[in-house]
Each structure stands twice: as C-alpha cells, then as structure tokens.
Amino acid sequence: MDIRLSAVGHAYDNVAVLSDITLDIPSGKIVCIVGPSGCGKSTLLRFIGGLERPAAGEVLQVGQPPEGCLNPLTYVFQDFALLPWRTVRGNISLVLEDHGIRGTAAARIIDDVLARTKLSEFAGALPKQLSGGMKQRVAIARALAVNPAVMLMDEPLSALDSQTRELLMDDLVALWTRTPFTAVYVTHNLAEAVRLGHAIVVLSRRPGQIREIVHLDTPLAERAFGDADLEQKQKYLWQLMRDEARAADAELMNV
Ligand SMILES: Nc1ncnc2c1ncn2[C@@H]1O[C@H](COP(=O)(O)OP(=O)(O)OP(=O)(O)O)[C@@H](O)[C@H]1O
Predict the structure, then answer these.
(1) Is the CB of 42 under 6 A from ligand 1?
(2) Domain formed by 2-65+149-254, architecture
(3) Is residue 205 in contact with ligand 1, taking CB distance under 6 Å?
(4) Which of 21-25, 61-65, 244-248 is modeled with the greatest confidence?
(5) Residues 23 and 201: beta-carbon distance below 8 Å
(6) What is the SS3 string spanning 159-223?
(7) Domain coordinates of the chain in residue numbers?
(8) pTM (2 d.p.)
(9) Would you state the pLDDT for residue 255?
(10) 57 membership: H or E segment, kind and range
(11) What spacing in Å lies between the alpha carbon of 207 and ligand 1's midpoint?
C-alpha cells in the first residue's frame, strides 16, 4: 500500500502550519522527513496516520495493506510507550489481544517478531530490566507484530545515546534488508536520515512546505558509518536547512 499526499495544508488558530504538501510514500521504502523545529513534521505524521484531518488537501491510501495486516498505520514513538507491568512478550501480545489473536496463533507471531528484532532471549523480561535501546527494539517488535502497511516513526531514536542510536540504526537496516517495510521516519538527526532514508523530504520552516526531496540510491546495507558520500549528502541537507533552522530558532525565542 502506498500513501499519497495531495496539496495537504493546515492551520491551527489561524497560524499556518503546513502548506501545499504533495508527496508519495511508496511501498517498501523509508521516507524521512526533516526540517526545523515547529515546521509541522509531527503534524504531518498525524495526518498520514489518520489521527487528524488536514484542513486542505487529501491523504490517500493507494492499494491494499499486506496480507495479515491488523493495523495498516502503526506508530513507533520516541518514548517507547511500553506497559511497565507486562513482560516483553506481554507487551507484544497486547496488540494481538486487541484483535482477538491469542494462544498458538499469537505465539507464532510473537516468536517471529522477537527473532527478527533479536529479542528472543529477553521475552520474559520487564521493561525496567531493559536498556533504552532494548525498549525501543520491543516497541519496534510490537509494531511489526501487526504487520503494518506503513510504520509511522516519530523521532524513534532521539531518546537514546549516540552509541545506542548507531546500534539501532544497524538493526533497522538489517530488519529492512531481510524484509523491506514501509516507513515515514521523522527526525531532527540528519545522520539518521542519510543512513535510513530512501528519500529525504526537507521541509521549510513554518508553514512547512517541501523545499526539496533528496533521493539516495545506495542500498541501505551498503551505507556505513563515516561513509564520505553520506557525509556529503548530510552536509548538503544541512546547507538546505541551516538558514531555516536559525530563523525558526529565533522565532521560538521571541514567543
Ligand atoms: N493541536 C495543536 N494545536 C495548536 N497548535 C498546534 C497543535 N499541534 C501542533 N501545533 C503547532 O503546530 C506547529 C507544528 O508543530 P509540530 O509538532 O508538527 O512541529 P515539528 O516540526 O514536529 O516540531 P519539532 O521538530 O519541534 O518536534 C507548532 O507551532 C506547534 O506549536
């Protein structure tokens, strides 16, 4: 299933937040969204996820979700959102229970996503026993358990330290390389965008408009930490964003 945004625009209390966003999110690709603070990245994600409707334009779902999909648009949040009293297995089983899937059918799905996220031996652990990186892996496993058409990832690694972020990026690349998934990935971090994005959408400051879409052809598995080509792309993105980011920063301080 692809997502197609057509001339999406929105204002909150007469403050224009997004303007004329036309964008395709093709199945099997990771589309990163970057832009200065307050430019409307999370708002755009909420429109894609159907949590809110834009005042102008449309968000279309084109084609069918994958077979066995329980929830076509599934979020992965920065703060993991795990239930502290449930084990790793219990947190994942919750989303299946919501769809009436229990017993051996649930166990099969849970075992599969635990293996894919390298969590099998931590199935019985409680969230408080896990590091931040492991908690986010559980949140990703939980999202995969519903076999979503599109994962909506809002700054999923930004609560983690830089080494854990690197490890999680490697995990996401390995996960995608084994079974490609579709994701819209909002981030402030341009290093994450160039490691994980097939396309990087650069938004201007509020009202967020598309300044440019940068496409990266290098396969994810061939993008290494410190790669000169990626650093070049990252510099280019920062050049696009620098003036906008400075202006957005000054604007926030004047509020
Ligand atoms: N429900 C709402 N009501 C009123 N204003 C809102 C609402 N949600 C977002 N905004 C405003 O819309 C603008 C865009 O917010 P949004 O969170 O989408 O930006 P962002 O690019 O994700 O920001 P950041 O990078 O800081 O996370 C901000 O000025 C924000 O204050």
Answers:
(1) yes
(2) 3-Layer(aba) Sandwich (3.40)
(3) no
(4) 21-25
(5) yes
(6) CCCHHHHHHHHHHHHHHHHHCCCCEEEECCCHHHHHHHCCEEEEECCCCECEEEEEECCCCHHHC
(7) 2-65+149-254, 84-147
(8) 0.93
(9) 53
(10) strand 56-62
(11) 10
Please choose, from the candidates 30, 147, 29, 138, the residue with its C-alpha nearest in 3D space to the C-alpha of residue 86. Answer: 138
Ligand 1 contact via 164 beta carbon (within 6 Å): no
Measure the N-to-C terminal CA separation of the chain; round to a whole number of Å.
Answer: 41
Q: Edge to edge, what strands does the sheet with 2-12 contain?
A: 15-25, 2-12, 56-62
The amino acid sitting at 164 is T
Could you identify the residue written with the tokens 């980011």? Answer: 245
Residues of the chain above pLDDT 70, percent:
98
* φ, ψ at 100 (rounded to 5°): 75, 20
Residue 51 to residues 11, 23, 66: CA-CA distances in angstroms? 16, 18, 21
Determine contact, residues 197/34, Cβ cutoff 8 Å.
no
